[in-house]
Each structure stands twice: as structure tokens, then as C-alpha cells.
């Protein structure tokens, strides 16, 4: 299909959407208080702190991360393609463009609570360095999901000629901290940055949403130059995500638009290049979890993000 196709995320689409329950506007758990470097305290269900009491399941999952759908092995296309395969020749539609992909959290964060709970300066205040992220009820960790989708996304973007940088590739014991995640995008001079996540909200809350930077200023944070292009990037990702996955925009955040705007995320506040987060679905909802644990669905998710980025970069 045409690479620059764009489908606006207008309305719910597809048969999967259940009854809307917008009354419970739980904020995206992995990104709230405990998630994604948010400072402490928010009581959002399914957040990183909610994961903490589940060490047995979670730790077991580190060696067998995906009970309901095996994680791709080193021989799978997504895992193998990225590290060993030589870079495609230049000349693709994204040749000369740099994309930074930020896989949310880190599978090792749970073993480094002291480090990831340390406070970092996000310009407008201080937040935790990083968090553990959420997990499905069966124990598939968000940090494994984000790495898998990010690797698939890297392959797709490199095939299109882009230079791709990951903020972490499972090679480091924890982190990076949210401020460093932002700096990696800035130092790369990225044309676009996408931070990949999945949410940890209540059962019945379904669908994806893209988080856009609010206009904030303070300390090292100044998003005035990235608010508009980031929105453009986010809208195109949301539209393509609907198209490739068939998933509907969130039924609990963003009023059916699949878009949310936040000024409390260090990874956005400190970015000087266009950047969005995407919450690909709700890991705590069984129906969404069935999608998130499916390798074929993750490929569709990566494709939607890749085509959204491509659409943005070719505009
Ligand atoms: Zn997250």
C-alpha cells in the first residue's frame, strides 16, 4: 500500500470495541505516577508499583516472557533482523532521515529499583529516573513488549532507508533514565522520536492512544518548538495505527481521538525534536492483552507506527 497513506483517527473502527466506559478515566498507568519516569505517588491501577508485588510471576517471565504467545526467539525475523543484518543500502524513501525509537522501560529495571527510583531533573520538576512498566495479568512484561515492537519498527524503518537509533536495546542492566532518553533523541538530531509503551489500566479500558507534548517551559524543558510538529507526527501515527492494526482509539483517554496531550512526562518535556509516545493498548484488559501478546499483531503495530513516521517525514 502507499507509504504515505494517511487515515485520520476519527472514530472507532472495527468490531472489537466493547461498550465504552469513559467514566473511569484512568490515566495511562505506565506513564503516570509510577510509569515512564513519573514521580511517585499516583494510585493508577496496574502501574509499575502494582507490578512490584508480582515478583514471582514477573521474574519467571524473564526467562519465559510470554506465556500466552511465545516471544520471538533470536531466530525470529524481528529479533535477528535487527542486530545481525547489514544496513540496507541508502536510497529508500527515508534515506537521510534519523529516527530514534525509545522502547519504554527496561526488563532489568525491576532488579534496579534503587537506581530507577532516583530523581532526575525534567526541567519542570523532578521525576523518577525510570519505572518498571506494567504487565499483562499472565505476566508478559511491558518492557518486553516495547523492545519487541521497537525492534520490529527498527527493521521496517531501516528497510525504508532511515537511520535508526534505539535508546536501549536490552543491552544495559536498567534504564536509561527519562532525561537521558530525551537527550539521546536530541543528540541524534532525530527527525522524529517515538517512545513505545503499553498501558496498565482497568479491565474494559481498551485501545491505543498517542501522547503529544504539551507546551511547557522550565529549566531545560522548552517544548515550544516541538508541540506542532509532534502533533503532526502523532496524528499520522494514530491514523496509520488504526489502519494497520484495526484497533480503535482508546475508549478511556482522548475522547475517541486516540490522542492525549501531557506536560508531565520528562521524556517529552526535555525533547528538542519532534517526539510522541504511543500506548499500544491496555495490558490489563484481557482482550487487549490477547492482541499485545500476539507476535503478528505486534508486527501490525510496528507497521502502523513505521508508516505514520514515514508519512510525517515525507509530508
Ligand atoms: Zn510504559
Q: How many extended strands?
A: 10
Strand content: 5-15%
What overall geometry do the principal axes of the alpha carbons give?
A: globular
Structural class determined from secondary elements? alpha/beta
Report the radius of gyration as a whole number of Å. 17 Å
CATH superfamily, by name, is: Zn-dependent exopeptidases
**Small molecules held by this entry:** zinc ion
On the 0 to 100 scale, the average pLDDT is 80
State the name of the first-level CATH class: Alpha Beta
Number of domains: 1
Distance between the termini: 17 Å
Name the helix and strand elements from N-terminus to C-terminus, one letter apiece.
Answer: HHHEHEEHEHEEEEHEHEHH
Any idea what the CATH architecture is?
A: 3-Layer(aba) Sandwich
Most strands sheet: 6 strands, mixed
Helix content: 25-40%
| CATH fold annotation | Aminopeptidase
Low-confidence stretches: 1-83
Largest sheet: spatial strand order: 4-1-5-10-6-9
Concise account of the structure shown:
The chain is of the alpha/beta class. The chain has ten helices and ten strands. The chain has a single domain, classed as Aminopeptidase (3-Layer(aba) Sandwich), CATH 3.40.630.
Amino acid at each position: 500500500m502507499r507509504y504515505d497513506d494517511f487515515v485520520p483517527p476519527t472514530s472507532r473502527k472495527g468490531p472489537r470495541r466493547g461498550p465504552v466506559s469513559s467514566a473511569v478515566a484512568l490515566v495511562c498507568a505506565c506513564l503516570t505516577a509510577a510509569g515512564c519516569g513519573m514521580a511517585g505517588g499516583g494510585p493508577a491501577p496496574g502501574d509499575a508499583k502494582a507490578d512490584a508485588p508480582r515478583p514471582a510471576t514477573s521474574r519467571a517471565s524473564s526467562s519465559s516472557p510470554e506465556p500466552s504467545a511465545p516471544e520471538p526467539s533470536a531466530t525470529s525475523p524481528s529479533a535477528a533482523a535487527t542486530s545481525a543484518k547489514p544496513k540496507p543500502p541508502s536510497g529508500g524513501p527515508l534515506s537521510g532521515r534519523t529516527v530514534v525509537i525509545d522502547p519504554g522501560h527496561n526488563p532489568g529495571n525491576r532488579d534496579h529499583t534503587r537506581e530507577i527510583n532516583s530523581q532526575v531533573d525534567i526541567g519542570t520538576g523532578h521525576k523518577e529516573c525510570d519505572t518498571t512498566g506494567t504487565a499483562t495479568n499472565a505476566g508478559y512484561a511491558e518492557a518486553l513488549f516495547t523492545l519487541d515492537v521497537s525492534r520490529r519498527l527498527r527493521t521496517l524503518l531501516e528497510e525504508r532507508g532511515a537511520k535508526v537509533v534505539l535508546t536501549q536495546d536490552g543491552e544495559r542492566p536498567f534504564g536509561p533514565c527519562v532525561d537521558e532518553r530525551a537527550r539521546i533523541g536530541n543528540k541524534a538530531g532525530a527527525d522524529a522520536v517515538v517512545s513505545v509503551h503499553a498501558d496498565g489500566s482497568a479491565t474494559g479500558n481498551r485501545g491505543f492512544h498517542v501522547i503529544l507534548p504539551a507546551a511547557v517551559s522550565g529549566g531545560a524543558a522548552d517544548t515550544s518548538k516541538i508541540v506542532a510538529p509532534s502533533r503532526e507526527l502523532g496524528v499520522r501515527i494514530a491514523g496509520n495505527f488504526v489502519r494497520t492494526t484495526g484497533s480503535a482509539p482508546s475508549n478511556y483517554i482522548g475522547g475517541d481521538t486516540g490522542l492525549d496531550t501531557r506536560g508531565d512526562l520528562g521524556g517529552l518535556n526535555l525533547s528538542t525534536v519532534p517526539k510522541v509516545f504511543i500506548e499500544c493498548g491496555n495490558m490489563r484488559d484481557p482482550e487487549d492483552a490477547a492482541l499485545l501478546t500476539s507476535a503478528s499483531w505486534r508486527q501490525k503495530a510496528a507497521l502502523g507506527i513505521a508508516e505514520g513516521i514515514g508519512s510525517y517525514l515525507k509530508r
